[in-house]
Amino acid sequence: MVEVAGERGVEDAVLDAARDCVLAYGVRRTTLTDVARRAGVSRMTVYRRWPDVQSLIGDLMSREWHLVLLATATDEGAGPARSRLVARVVAGARLLREHPLLCKIRDVDPEVLLPYLLDRRGNGQDEMLRFLAAALAAGRADGSVRPGDTEMMARAVYLTTQSFVLSVRTVADGMPVTDFDRELARLVDGYLRPD
Length: 195
What we know:
Mean pLDDT: 93
Shape: elongated
Number of strands: 0
């Protein structure tokens, strides 16, 4: 068994292995033993950090959604903060909607998502809310975002975007998804635009 150097290296190797296992088998059929074997680390290395598959999958989703948020920074462009925020929201919705891990969980193990939709937020959701609040504050500072409760507005944008990520298939009826991206941009931009 080859241990990956450094704690960060081990964590990334285990999370990469967990992603590969979920993509291959789904969440329900993934075990910590399978993940350890695929990561090339001992089972105890995995068990010390993650007591069960649910906690491992939670950390995996947080990491993957963080990477999506980072990837949207390239779609930001120039212009007022509101325009940059709208571009990142739409890019993030598109990337999440097409993300292999989210697609696999949605299609094979949708019950994994239910707690995050109905009962509580995960770390990835909290990170997205912090990003939205900061972007809204920047928009308020440059005059491109209307006044209002920043936290409430961030949550409203988040909830709207979440429906475009997770529920668009239920209403698309063969319409191009890019049409929904344009509508999301209009919704968010109109909601945030000063009077």
